[in-house]
Amino acid sequence: MSIFYSFFIAVEPLRLWLGYCGNLKERVPDLAGCFLFTFFPQLFTCFYYMGWQPKLGYGFTLPFEVALNASYSLLLIPEMYFGYASAQAIIKSQAASFFLTLGRVSSDEGIMEAEQADLGVGPGGVACGL
User: Is the whole-model pTM more than 0.70?
Assistant: First the structure.
């Protein structure tokens, strides 16, 4: 029982920090770490203390523990959904900006080639004879 609490106390600040920094800096690995830490240790710990503890034969659950962990899991489940949705939105935004950057590079090269053709300069800056 104390193993779950110590793991919960160790992971919770890391999970919150990853979510906070991932949102501010729009870093997908941080958001993925927050999502995974929300799902695996935190949600399972809530369910364990909410009802699995007496069913597994490791003790009893007080009504206060059930209410507390039920309210916490009601906060974690939407957090998981919105965290996943925000990570998907950031991935789409970063992919779009990457492809826009590629478009600018290719259009800049096209403009340079057009300017060189107007000046009579061939590829590589070599002057073409007219």
Answer: no
